[in-house]
Amino acid sequence: MQNFDTKQFTDQFESMLLGPARAYAALSVDYSEKLVNAQLDASKAYTDTGMAQLRSLMNVKDAEGLKSYMEGQQKVAKDLTERLKGDAEKVVSLQQDFVQQSQKLTEENVKQATDTATKAAK
To answer: Which segments constitute the Phasin domain (predicted)?
Structure first.
């Protein structure tokens, strides 16, 4: 009867399954946190802009005030467009970083699994 080496089994299980799963989970949580923070920042900026525009509109008392408000809307639209572009670029950058780190993690895990399998076969 052959002795079963539980330490070797545990080490292999850790290195081939649990370790990579934990690393990917950590990467996913970090990405999610960054994405949520970016979305919260964008939401706050858009809300603040909207509220500021409502306050400006409430201060319109005459035709000259309305004209001034409408002229200001062009600047607000331009600023929001630039903000939206920047927010989209930020999200794309986060996604690209996540994909690159995921690929690197996968390559490292495949190499480690191959090394472990080679050692176990000997």
So the answer is: 18-110
